[in-house]
Design a protein that fits this description.
This protein has a single domain, classed as Alpha-Beta Plaits (2-Layer Sandwich). 41% of the residues lie in helices and 12% in strands. It is built from four helices and two strands, in the order H-E-E-H-H-H. Strand 1 and strand 2 form a beta hairpin. Helix 1 crosses helix 2. The radius of gyration is 14 Å and the shape is globular. The protein starts with a helix and ends in a 20-residue tail after the last helix.
Length: 123
């Protein structure tokens, strides 16, 4: 299992570091067996593609660095798949509905869910 509690912790710490260095704010992070959902808020000067690439590259680098067994467990050596799905909050839903959806990822017993409270800065 690649998304172990240790990997979840590394992912969360890395996302908090990204918040400190970039204008990307994580409102919720929900992990499940084989995927992760992010609810992020950013500035209009960052394209959705730039946001996804930043998150994917920095989190993968940190996970491989701090949990080297993960890279060996992945056949292709890539933590993230090549694609991603991005949608904006607005026309068909609102932030509260999407935050609740992301928050409810990984509710199975053996998987932990990550929640980042807007005020949470320490572990």
């Amino acid at each position: 299992m690649v998304l172990s509690p240790k990997v979840d912790r590394i992912l969360k710490r890395t996302c908090l570091d990204i918040q400190d260095r970039y204008e990307i704010h994580f409102l919720e992070i929900g992990s499940d067996k084989d995927h992760v959902h992010f609810l992020v808020q950013s500035v209009p000067t960052y394209s959705p593609t730039k946001i996804a690439r930043t998150i994917k590259s920095l989190t993968a680098r940190e996970i491989f660095s701090k949990a080297p067994g993960v890279k060996r467990a992945l056949w292709g050596g890539a933590f993230w798949g090549s694609g991603f799905y991005i949608n904006t909050v607005g026309q068909h839903s609102n932030e509260k509905v999407i935050a609740e959806y992301v928050k409810n990822q990984g509710k199975e017993q053996e998987y932990e869910i990550l929640h980042i409270n807007r005020q949470l800065r320490l572990f």
